[in-house]
Amino acid sequence: MSARGGGFGDWVVTGMGLGRLRPAPGTWGSLPPVALAMVLALAETNPRHIDMALAILGLSFGIGCLVWGKGAESRYGKKDPGAVVADEIAGQSLALMWLPWSTTNSARVIATCAIAFFMFRIFDIVKPPPARGWQRLEGGLGILIDDLVAGLYALIATQLIVHNLW
Fold first, then answer.
1. Domain extents for the chain?
2. Quick check: 120 and 30 in contact, CB under 8 A?
3. d(Cα 14, Cα 26) in Å, to the nearest integer?
4. pLDDT of 2 strictly over 60
5. Preceding peptide of 33 cis, ω within 30°
6. Crossing angle, helix 86-95 and helix 31-42, to 10 degrees?
7. pLDDT mean over 35-45
8. What is the C-alpha to C-alpha distance for residues 40 and 164, in angstroms, rounded to an integer?
9. Alpha helix segments (H runs only) across 43-105
């Protein structure tokens, strides 16, 4: 089966096609939640509304990963294929939740987004326990779970860094 096929499900699991970008498709896939949070914070959106938007984005792509992940593995011919980045969108969304958005200070908004982005990418690449072990689970759950764990670790690290900086 062609890696390009799959319709809407493939569009979701590839993060609207970002997973097809090279190099580092996971990095490309991590950008939508960062861009969303940054745009909303710079527009002086209520921080809880930013959290709600991130939750909707993360849940949508997380559920998409669960629903269409196994089919994507078959289509791409490997476990947790690089083109599948819905898991990165879900994990990065988690890493950006509940932050102290300084909607009146654009430098802090940009710095906060950058910190969350880099923390997530580090934890997603390193995959500290139990993330790597849970990746062995079947289908979409195996694709998603390690990124949610990385997102949780990144959330904690980002909270600690941001709260100590400002």
1. 7-165
2. yes
3. 10
4. no
5. no
6. 40
7. 96
8. 23
9. 47-76, 86-95
**Long-range Cβ pairs for the range 131-139 (8 Å, 24+):** 135/80, 138/70, 139/66, 139/69, 139/70, 139/73
Q: What does pLDDT average to over the chain?
A: 92
Residue that wins the pLDDT comparison between 136 and 57 = 57
Report residue 106: phi and psi, to 5°.
Answer: -65, -35
Predicted model pTM: 0.93
Please check whether residue 126 is in contact with residue 92, taking contact to mean a CB–CB distance below 8 angstroms: no
Between 63 and 1, residue with greater pLDDT: 63
Structural tokens at position 102: 């300084």
Alpha carbon distance 92, 38 (integer Å): 13
Residue with tokens 């890493």: 95
Q: What is the pLDDT of residue 6?
A: 67
How far is residue 32's CA from residue 47's CA, in Å, rounded to a whole number?
A: 17
Does the structure show a pLDDT above 50 at 1?
no
